[in-house]
Amino acid sequence: MENYSILEGPQLGLSGTVQSWEVINSDGSIARACYKPHSNLITNYGLESLYWSSYNGGSWTVTGCIAIGTGTAEPTITDTRLGTEVFRGVRNYAAYNADSYSPAGGVDGYYYVTRTRGYQTNLGDLNNDVSEIGFSPDPTSNGASLFSKHRLKDEYGNPTSIRVNSDQQLRIKYIVSISVTPITTYTGSFELSGYTPTTINYTAGW
To answer: What would the pLDDT profile of 122-132 be if each residue is shown by its tens digit?
Structure first.
């Protein structure tokens, strides 16, 4: 008997994007900023953590904490820490927080969910030349638990360091997107001996 695959499986997409960064003065004015989005690296640990965090109550917890450092090396998928971490913690900036989902039936067969989250340090959290950030479910300082890691870049896409004094705050907008490509729908039939009717018709798809 021959075996046939009746489904062309979907592909799962996962991406992280640092949408913007801003250095905020104590009076609320902006000292320096970049509003050009840059992709960041989802680590191997991050991919694995999506499974166990979903099992333990919600995959979105993987970006609950922001980690900030002064290291200058480009991220690699095996990284679990920043190069030189100087701060880690829960620093929510609610004005940026938003979720969006594909409508019922998807968009041209595509399904997606996107979560936008804002982070803003407190005054006094930093007094450093910041060059790297990461996101983690773990508030432990320098914990080996980065979901994603990013070398900060300027508006031209060049690696950069940004000075954040103790009387300033760093504000980050971060987006995580999960998408599923369409499945090709197939129709057909097959014979099933001993079953009535003997011809089974099927439609296989998403």
So the answer is: 999 999 999 99
- Residue whose C-alpha is closest to residue 69's, from 116, 10, 6, 136: 136
Q: Phi and psi at residue 129, in whole multiples of 5°?
A: -90, 100
pTM above 0.90, yes or no: no
Structure tokens given for 82:
């920043």
Q: Is the dihedral of CA 146, 152, 156, 159 positive or negative?
A: negative
Distances (CA, A) of 45 to 8, 48, 69, 101, 179: 28, 5, 19, 25, 20
| Contacting residues for 73 by C-beta, under 8 A, at least 6 apart | 83, 151
Helix residue spans in the chain (DSSP H):
44-55
Structure confidence at residue 193 (pLDDT): 66
- Does 38 have pLDDT greater than 70? yes
